[in-house]
Amino acid sequence: MKTTGRLYHAHSNTFIYCELSLSDECVVFSNDEGLHERLPKPRLVLGMAIKGQAQDITLPDGRRFLCDDKTFRLNQHSTSSFIERSEQHKGLVIGAIFFCPLLLYWLFFIAIPHVAASSAGHLPQSVIETIGQQSMTLIEKAALEPTQLDEQKVANAERIWLELINQLQLNEQKYRLGFYQSEFFGANAFALPHGQIVVTDDLILKLADYDDAFRAVLLHEIGHVEHRHSVKIAAQTAGTTVALAIVFGDLQGIVDLALGVGTAIMQQQFSQGMERQADDYALSNLLKLGYKPEHFATALEIISQGTDDDSQSWSKYLSTHPHVKSRIEKARTYKHP
Fold first, then answer.
1. What transmembrane ranges does the database entry give (predicted)?
2. Helix count and strand count (H, E) for the chain
3. Whose CA is closest to 120, among 239, 215, 216?
4. Cα separation of 138 and 146, whole Å?
5. Which of 239, 281, 288, 291 is CA-nearest to residue 260?
6. Within a 10 A sphere around the Cβ of 325, how many other Cβ atoms?
């Protein structure tokens, strides 16, 4: 077996033309200029055989041989040859076309969320605190302004908040309440992984005459923290970012991981199951503390006034997962399990 090609010097683009021939278990490189080099085949490093490309053959000293015949293969019965034959197998190609999307779906919609949910319960508090603080810094810069509420409304909201924290016997150092003006969020409240609860001025103003409804909203947000929903979203975002970087070869995306996690929390849209868990937490604790579950229904109704339920509102309370009307109905008919 013989073929001609180019023999490149090690770490260089310069080359000489030569002939490659097989003799027993050795490979001979020769040309008319006096080159005659005999090497055992096992000492050569053979590149993967890819259809339409010349096989790369590397010599022990780093020189590389590329043959002119792109169909020439020094390892006809190797794994590379199997890969090349597989690329030409129509059945395998069609199977890959259907299998790859299914694999990606399983990875991003089943495996990563499952791992994220499992890992969220094992993250140290110091890590959760860091995620929460970084996310809060991003959200403050992007969408929040100092509160414009008067002292009386802030004092009343803080009174309700502290009553809840004491009644639920929660850690005052972990759970903190913040007031902000935000055109971006509108009448809204959201919870960060480390226990920071943010309420907007518009929400306070809408619920100014409904203390019990405001209390129900706070309980809903505390429920998100207690069930670590934001932590799960952060873990899922981090896992997805790493997986995408590996699958598509963009490892630089991992550098932006912290920013991506913060953005995900800022734009958090909790799943149907997460919303139901937070709703149940609020409703059960309203009953436990001597309040009526209907107060949560009142809060949903007031917040949703003048808002198209099908619009892309940032308010989680108007999320269609589940539909706000079903959440109101559930709150009005709720009985402790």
1. 92-116
2. 12, 11
3. 239
4. 15
5. 239
6. 13
Query: Residue 166 has which token pair?
Result: 């004491």
For residues 161 and 199, the answer to whether their CB atoms sit within 8 Å is no
Q: Rounded CA gap, 218 and 195, in Å? A: 12
Instruction: Over range 180-207, report the average pLDDT.
Output: 93
Q: What are phi and psi for residue 163, nearest 5 degrees? A: -60, -45
Query: Does the pTM exceed 0.70?
Result: no
Looking at residue 102, the DSSP 8-state letter turns out to be H
| φ, ψ for residue 19, nearest 5 deg | -115, 140
Q: Which residue has the tokens 């959200």?
A: 139
Domain boundaries, the chain: 2-76, 126-333
Nearest to 27 by CA among 15, 12, 40, 17: 40
pLDDT digits (tens, 9 = 90+) for 75-128: 644 555 566 566 667 788 788 888 888 887 787 777 777 776 677 677 788 888
Residue among 332, 327, 302 at smallest CA distance from 189: 302
Residue in the block written with tokens 């108007």:
318
